[in-house]
Design brief:
With about 120 residues, the chain is mainly beta. About 0% of the residues lie in helices and about 50% in strands. The chain has strands at about 5, 10, 20-25, 35-40, 45-50, 60, 70-75, 80-85, 90-100, 110, 115-120. Strands 2, 4, 5, 6, 9, 10 and 11 form a seven-stranded mixed sheet that branches. It has a four-stranded antiparallel sheet with strand order 1-3-8-7, with no helix packed on it. Strand 5 and strand 6 (about 60) form a beta hairpin.
């Protein structure tokens, strides 16, 4: 079965950190770029970051630059999103998508995970 599974979400205080994982099964991430997205209640879904097939090129939305880092571990077939200096406005359901292209429009993603909830609150 081809799937992506996110993990690592939770409740954290403002200024804290979390590391999200996006693990692939049934296919290799060597052939796919990964995008991280988030969706908060009442807000539009937004793309947070992208990482290319090789893991050498990344893009971040402006609001997370300098705080979030995405990386790829090919041996574990997993992509990570390290989130530091978290803010309440980062609270959302975070999920990953796999695409053959680097940072395409959302309808070009081939596989999606179910998401993991991140809540930033004191």
């Amino acid at each position: 079965q081809l799937q992506l599974v996110e993990s690592g979400g939770g409740l954290v205080q403002p200024g804290g950190s979390l590391r999200l994982s996006c693990a692939a099964s049934g296919f290799t991430l060597d052939n796919y770029a990964i995008g991280w997205f988030r969706k908060a209640p009442g807000k539009e879904r937004e793309e947070v970051s992208c990482i290319d097939k090789s893991g050498s090129r990344t893009i971040y939305r402006e609001s997370v630059k300098g705080r979030f880092t995405t990386s790829k571990d090919k041996a574990k077939n997993t992509v990570y999103l390290q989130m530091n200096s978290l803010k309440p406005e980062d609270s959302a359901n975070y999920y990953c998508g796999a695409s053959k292209d680097f940072c395409p429009a959302e309808n070009f993603y081939n596989y999606w995970g179910q998401g993991t909830q991140v809540t930033v609150s004191s």
